[in-house]
């Protein structure tokens, strides 16, 4: 039997890379990494099992690029896609607290650049819809798994990064709303909600504020994937990752 194929956005570093390695080594997957960072992507393929790992470089907010990545991953994976891990994410970028940047011509605030919404919500929704298409219309056997990287900030307020928190709050509503409907077609969808975890998304100037024992290790995300892959009926869960614990919150 051929290996199942997974497509991971933001898979060249952090949680995405750790999950890619775990899926190859312990669950027999082939991994298509979709990431905007060419250097990290090439390095990821060289450190993983190159025979079972493919790197596709593009901006996840570019719908044409994301759709082509799905096609490429599907064909490379022997015309079957088993798992979509929507993991790419960014921080706020803009501030709702600093002095307002006013357009002198109109006297009104200039529009905010909301890349955090484009990456953390819009691109994920597009990716979920693409995954559903391949699961239902392209696979020989209908169905598949979707996992979304959210954050524990989908559960709690975050005054210092409100736009990021808002994007993660939106994801929990999306996952919980889609789950019972998608289940009828054999598609599961769950969200990972990591607490403070040391990845590239954590600003370097903030890392010294916490002792390492206060950080959630990447291995906790791997535990969550083990739980998901061992139970085909598990869906609609927001899985809080806190230190070494995986806490299911339906």
UniProtKB/TrEMBL annotation:
Q: Which SUPFAM superfamilies does this chain map to? A: NAD(P)-binding Rossmann-fold domains (SSF51735)
Q: Which family does it belong to?
A: Belongs to the short-chain dehydrogenases/reductases (SDR) family.
Q: Which UniProt keywords apply?
A: NADP, Oxidoreductase
A Pfam match = adh_short
Put simply, this protein is called 15-hydroxyprostaglandin dehydrogenase (NAD(+)) like protein
One GO MF term on file is: oxidoreductase activity, acting on the CH-OH group of donors, NAD or NADP as acceptor
Any single Gene Ontology cellular-component annotation: cytoplasm
Gene3D superfamilies xref list: NAD(P)-binding Rossmann-like Domain
């Amino acid at each position: 039997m051929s290996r199942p194929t997974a497509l991971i956005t933001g898979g060249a570093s952090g949680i995405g890379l750790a999950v890619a390695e775990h899926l190859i080594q312990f669950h027999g997957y082939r991994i298509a990494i979709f990431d905007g960072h060419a250097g990290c992507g090439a390095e990821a393929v060289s450190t993983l099992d190159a025979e079972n790992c493919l790197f596709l470089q593009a901006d996840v907010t570019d719908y044409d690029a994301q759709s082509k990545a799905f096609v490429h991953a599907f064909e490379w994976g022997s015309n079957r896609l088993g798992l979509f891990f929507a993991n790419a994410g960014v921080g706020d970028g803009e501030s709702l607290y600093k002095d307002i940047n006013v357009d002198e011509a109109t006297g009104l605030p200039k529009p905010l650049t909301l890349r955090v919404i484009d990456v953390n919500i819009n691109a994920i929704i597009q990716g979920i819809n693409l995954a559903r298409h391949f699961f239902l219309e392209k696979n020989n056997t209908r169905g598949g798994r979707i996992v979304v990287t959210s954050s524990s900030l989908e559960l709690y307020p975050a005054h210092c990064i409100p736009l990021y928190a808002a994007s993660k709050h939106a994801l929990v509503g999306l996952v919980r709303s889609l789950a019972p409907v998608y289940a009828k077609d054999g598609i599961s969808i769950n969200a990972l909600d990591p607490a403070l975890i040391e990845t590239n998304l954590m600003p370097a100037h903030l890392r010294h504020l916490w002792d390492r024992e206060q950080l959630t290790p990447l291995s906790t995300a791997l535990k969550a994937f083990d739980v998901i892959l061992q139970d085909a009926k598990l869906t609609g869960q927001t899985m809080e990752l806190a230190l070494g614990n995986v806490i299911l919150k339906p």
